[in-house]
Amino acid sequence: MQAVKFEDWGIIEYGKAWDKQEEILKQNLAVKAKWFGKNEEEKDRSIDTSHHFILCEHPHVYTLGKSGMMENLLLNDTRLKELEVTFYKTNRGGDITYHGPQQIVGYPILDLEKIYTDLGKYMRRLEEVIIRTIAHWGIVGDRLPGSTGVWLDADIKGKERKICAMGVRCSRWVTMHGFALNVNTDLKYFDYIVPCGITDKGVTSIQKELGETIDMNLVKAEINKHFEEVFAVKLA
Questions:
Q1: How many CA atoms does the CB half-sphere of 165 hold within 13 Å?
Q2: Do 196 and 97 form a contact (C-beta atoms < 8 A)?
Q3: Per-residue confidence (pLDDT) for residue 42, from 0 to 100
């Protein structure tokens, strides 16, 4: 069972969190560069890649993925400043999404060459972590064909609503970015964008589904438990 270093960054500005992720990614890529062209016996395992799993919250921010369109941000710069929301174009996959207080953002930085070199399988397992997490509160999560993330009532036309968005980057099989689970999130901020570029489906949160405020630490504990189960790793 492989070890994964766990960190809770608390409430952290999005750009700062992105920089910290990039630094960990660069450290892993530097190790891989030293290994390039060598077989397993020749690799110096005293200098090894490392797995990380980070949970955090961000102040209000909209982020646009590589395949996203600016038209899906429905605010101008003046309105963004009035709402005290920042904006970033990112290097993750996907379109536009929102991060904010009382939303748990997860950043797994994993060397998939040590796990499996299948990005689709990785995404499905990330979804599985969240599906199992929200099941603790009796919420049935599912996948929506053709879309990433975790959805509720995915098979009922007109009732589909996303509770967790996902978008990742993978470089030389090292991942970064990740998921955003709406816990007690103020969902009005999704009204100012076309979430993930999807116009005909809704957004929800654990709080909205249950009609009560949820302890963020309990949700984090459930995420960590299921992350260990699904990926067969040990958080340390």
A1: 30
A2: yes
A3: 67
List 170's β-bridge partners, or say none.
175
- Structural domains in the chain, CATH included, are 2-32+47-235 (3.30.930.10)
Distance CA 80, CA 57 (A): 19
The two tokens of residue 195 are: 């979430």
Kindly name the residue from 56, 164, 170, 196 that is annotated as catalytic. 196
For residue 232 the two structure tokens come to: 């067969």
Q: Is the pLDDT of residue 153 over 70?
A: yes
In 106-215, which residue ranges form alpha helices assigned H by DSSP?
119-135, 206-210
> Per-residue confidence at 1, pLDDT binned at 50, 70, 90?
confident
* Tens of pLDDT, residues 29-47: 999 998 777 777 766 766 7
Rg of the Cα atoms in the chain? 18
Whether 56 is a known active-site residue: answer no
Residues with Cβ within 8 Å of 128's Cβ and at least 6 positions away in sequence, in order, are 226, 230
DSSP structural state of residue 232: T
